[in-house]
Design brief:
The structure holds two protein chains of two kinds. By secondary structure, chain A is mainly β. Chain A contains no helices and twelve strands. In chain A, strands 2, 5, 6, 10, 11 and 12 form a six-stranded mixed sheet that branches. Chain A has a four-stranded antiparallel sheet with strand order 3-9-8-7, with no helix packed on it. Chain A starts with a strand and ends with a strand. Chain B contains no helices and eleven strands. The chains are: A mainly beta, B mainly beta. The interface between A and B is medium-sized, with 24 and 28 residues.
Amino acid sequence: AQSVAQPEDQVNVAEGNPLTVKCTYSVSGNPYLFWYVQYPNRGLQFLLKYITGDNLVKGSYGFEAEFNKSQTSFHLKKPSALVSDSALYFCAVRDTGGSYIPTFGRGTSLIVHP
Amino acid sequence: DTGVSQNPRHKITKRGQNVTFRCDPISEHNRLYWYRQTLGQGPEFLTYFQNEAQLEKSRLLSDRFSAERPKGSFSTLEIQRTEQGDSAMYLCASSPLSLSGNTIYFGEGSWLTVV
């Protein structure tokens, strides 16, 4: 079975400060990990993914994420937050030895204050 | 690449009526997914197609729900005898057929409100 947890319902950060949105996962084998962003009344937009290789993955809009196998985590980060980054962020996992269907977390609402 | 297209974007229906949503995946994407999302929750898997074959269905997909993907192109999701609990956003996504960690790409979703 595969699962993902996003322990924070909401993250607040001031514009210009670094941000972190947390994600931990559980899979039987090795993970494929994904981050998506959702703006109000819109679908999910792909940000970045970890497949294999370098643990630090860079994605769209200046976001990056670090894969940590020992802590089973894949936290999303950005060095300097923008007000326009305010949105819902979803982490997803797929077991490399399982089906082709990703499982999503409940989401974290990121609020960037001016 | 025009992205995943979903229609209608919004649907308000009376309890007991049937509704149908359509999804046009990204061209040449063999895999197609339906998810449901309610307020404050992440997307929950409903069903998955590879080409025209429906390979997996969630327990969430009750007998009132049916999905098809004729000819492996567009897909439809029909909900019969709608209930208020069916109110949600229905998301369609597609991905290419590859052995590696293929990304799934979502459409803008179809909002269903059952009154």
